[in-house]
Amino acid sequence: MPVRSMIMLCLVWIFLFWGAESAFAGKHYEIQKVSDSVYAAVALPDGKAASNAMFIVTGSHVILAGSHFVLDAVRELVAEIAKITPNPVREIILTHHHSGYNYIDVDLPANAEIITSWQTWLALKSEYRQVKNPVTYFEKGLTLQRENLSIVLSNTDFGHSKGDLVVYVPSEGVLFTSDLVFNKAIGYMGTGYMRDWVICLEFLESLSASIVIPGVGKVTDSEGITQFRMFMKDFLTEVLRHIEKGDSLAITKKDFRIPQYSNLPGYKTFFEVNIERAYGELKEK
Asked: Which InterPro entries did the record assign (predicted)?
């Protein structure tokens, strides 16, 4: 083949590849297929989505999982899903909700059923804006059998918040941790139950999932959970060191040092609220 023809062919392939990748990138999420039936929606830094989501495509409908759903991001997700499958979004697994945030998690597709933990349902019900969707909530665990897929939901009780859900698709080795795991980034920890959170991470590691969709950051594997657990232990150890010295919260903030993590995205953004929560949680016990 002449050199010119080879160059033109390469350019065509590059264009097609770039175009295909771009088709999955929106304003708020980048959509990534991670297994036969599961897609990750990774929140983009400049978008309105505060954390990642995932969706599962079955033969009849789509199951969306995540939290912090603002209207613009929901619209984009529904539009992106429609490019992949004509099947409608019929179930939404709401992994957690922070009380007092009335602009998230209520503007969901009207015909979709919300599935969540009882704690998250109570948090959602406390808002002055009420969801109009049908709701199913549960106490400890729930398995959804959708055709040949088993989708295992576990209520961790206490972790990043009250009633965090994790979503596991064992046949495809996919685990969605929501905000229980941040991958190479630091997210909001202001409602966390710190000791319980570390125990949750040990449980998630034991699943040995080959594909892990975190709440913040790129898709990873079980090693990503391990790395975040190590951060949590280092973070909490440093807080405890100051508490044991008798340092006040103000001094702890001033002298707190974990330099190996200080350049991670979100570290500075959430530094104040994360330290305050950890200090208060650990000082009480």
From this structure: Metallo-B-lactamas (IPR001279), NDM-1-like (IPR050855), ODP_dom (IPR045761), RibonucZ/Hydroxyglut_hydro (IPR036866)
